[in-house]
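Q: I have two molecules that I believe assemble together. Could you output structure tokens for the complex as a whole instead of separate predictions?
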Amino acid sequence: MLKINNLHAKLEDEDKQILKGVTLEVPAGEVHAIMGPNGSGKSTTSYVLSGRDGYEVTEGSATLNGQDLLEMEPEERAAAGLFLAFQYPVEIPGVGNMTFLRTAANAQRKARGEDELSAGEFLKLVREKAKTLNIDAEMLKRPVNVGFSGGEKKRNEILQMALLEPKMCVLDETDSGLDVDAMRLVADGVNALRSPDRAFLVITHYQRLLDHIQPDVVHIMADGRIVKTGGPDLALEVEKNGYADILAEVG
Amino acid sequence: MSPTTDLDVREGVDRETVETVANMGSYKYGWDTEIEMEYAPKGINEDIVRLISQRNEEPEWMLDWRLKAFRRWQQMSLPKWAMLDIPEIDFQDQYYYARPKSMAEKPKSLDEVDPKLLATYEKLGIPLKEQMILAGVEGAEETPADARKVAVDAVFDSVSVGTTFKAELAKAGIIFCPISEAIREHPELVQKYLGSVVPQGDNFYSALNSAVFSDGSFVYIPPGVRSPMELSTYFRINAENTGQFERTLIIADKGSYVSYLEGCTAPKRDTAQLHAAVVEIVILEDAEVKYSTVQNWFPGDEDGKGGIYNFVTKRADCREDRAKVMWTQVETGSAITWKYPSCILRGDESQGEFYSIAIANNRQQADTGTKMLHLGKNTRSRIVSKGISAGRAQNTYRGRVAIHPKATHSRNYTQCDSLLIGDKCGAHTVPYIEVKNASSRVEHEATTSKVDDDQLFYCRQRGIGEEEAIALIVNGFAKEVLQALPMEFAMEAQSLVAISLEGSVG
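A: Yes, here they are, computed for all two components at once.
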């Protein structure tokens, strides 16, 4: 599904190299986690994959089902099936959540040469998804993320994910700022979306989210590289001993 | 209303935007119609004023009124106070009167109508049924249109080419006709009200308009009548080097109601063209008028070449108690916009509202706003202005709220928001506030924001293209004003917002 090979990236405005050769492969149906200390390049990985301005790829490649992600505009990557759940979802005043979702869904369908959904069809679909995810339909009428609590914003991200049905979901520190109950709701949402033809890359600072979203593979990132890869127990090890031991071990 | 229908309705509007944005192009009304025109000689003098009056078969009093205005205009100078960089205008290098030759005599049937006029309206997207009537076919108004009825007066350069649903409106006692016709047929109303809200010498452009206006719309709603349909005027400037000077007079008698719409377009031309209109609205006791404008004159090209210079005086007089007026404007076109639809709140408990979206892209300049003049007791006014600047455009909100000593217990609320796209444009807010009594209250709120990269990236990550994302964000910013528009207009306005911002990013 997602193949990242020797990815190097720097800030566009400064000569600061942030990613220094990330190599990673997430097959369909699997959930991978990236953990690592602050400033290790976890969030940058998600931005470079999704095409945010301000970064320059200097070397390496990233493909989604064989398609070169780095050659595409952000909206083309989305249509190709890449979804990023934001660490800080953005507010868009005056734009109804429903309108935003439908505009996005239809833009993607159009880009893929599929028929657009009518208002009725879309409404039905949204209601259905919101119900499975235990999300109050009231949230759909409000402007995008405006006045949402931290938990609501993250659940809105999950709802968008459910509606857009991406192939590859990247979750950027989705657990940040959430209390235990809110985190469980978000994790339940992600678990409900797990399927054999969809893959997840869960970026997190702490192990606690991984109690709820069981990963198949855990990667440790430090100084712009993946320094260690292992099973779910690697996350537990980090939780117990911190990053220092692992970092010392890999030099 | 159940939540489902509510959402469906909103979705309907938004879907329209999205589709239009998807097929977005540049100014889409920029084509012209090749049609044989009859012009008055270039320039302005007393003979031209006489000629216009004579073409319209006007009575003597009207000619005298025009000449008085012309003499007044000659003594006036151009207003310079607006934040506008206006190239010198040679008023003698303009045509002041142009009409299609085929309109010399009103066509009696479809066969007689110039097919080019028909095609023009078809291309502008006026529905076929209306189009037949628009092109001036007598009798077509007997057949009602399928859709919701909107009566249209179509002004092509200097003349009105047709007014729809006249007969049906007449049954309700409503007069809706070209003002040239009203001067002949209803002189008592015109003489009583013309110039009573915007006097001839009010300003340079109103004086010019009073001297040379050639046509426009006239509306009279009798006491207690609620207009059964929306009334509208569609202005099209087609001829080159020709100014359009139209005059609209609306009178809402006691207890009446009307919603009036105005739309405007013009072909793409290299040279700038002048448009100086006057709109006067008289509102009597307990009557209410809603006046909505979607202004889409050609804005000039990316380098600021060509475009319409739009100098407009619009004013409503809430002459008696509890009269109400609501101005809603969506200003997307014109190279230069100088326009301040105002409310005189003379009657006690009268109300004035002003909702505005002004978009300036590329080299466009807009200096627009409103005046709320509180003269009566317990008068209320509300101003919601949304200015959007992109490219190298300059956008100024200029507003005056004046509360007279006798206008006790009056209130005004002003909200003025500016949105910037890119870093080469400007937004300015110039409020003038005068409160001359202690029991009144005035509130003013203003914000300035930028469409930020985070919002754009968020939309794009969800699959929405950049231009569509801008349109979505801007429509969200302007939502309060868009909601104040009648439904059909709201859709058109949303699409226009998208089109006029085309090329503002990247």
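A: One point stands out. The two ends of chain B are 42 Å apart (CA to CA).
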